[in-house]
Design a protein that fits this description.
This protein is of the alpha+beta class. The chain has a domain of 56 residues. 17% of the residues lie in helices and 29% in strands. The strands form two sheets. It has a three-stranded antiparallel beta sheet, covered by helices on one side. The protein starts with 8 loop residues before the first strand and ends with a helix.
Length: 96
């Protein structure tokens, strides 16, 4: 931060991935289906300022969806989709 000389800081933490959820099939169905877990990043941003004016820490969770939403069946990572989700989530958390 040029005004305070303190650096801005963005911390992204990836908590353990939850297990998939089993959903029972409606009436008479023998098998249910598995719903993959959502990939979530915990976000903490510090503006680097001191005191009440302009200082602050913002926290939130960036929900990026499940892997099948940004990885193809062939295992190819689709960076564009992942990047859009990440940028959108960060903008909401940071208020941009």
């Amino acid at each position: 931060n040029p005004k305070t000389g303190k650096p801005e800081q963005l911390i992204l933490t990836s908590p353990p991935l939850a297990r998939h959820k089993l959903v029972q099939k409606a009436e008479g169905g023998r098998k249910g289906s598995a719903v993959p877990p959502e990939y979530v990043l915990e976000v903490e941003y510090s503006s680097g300022g001191a005191g009440a004016a302009g200082a602050g820490t913002k926290k939130g969770k960036a929900v990026l969806g499940h892997f099948a939403e940004w990885v193809t069946e062939e295992g190819e990572f689709v960076e564009r989709i992942f990047a859009e989700r990440l940028h959108s989530s960060l903008a909401k958390i940071l208020g941009e």
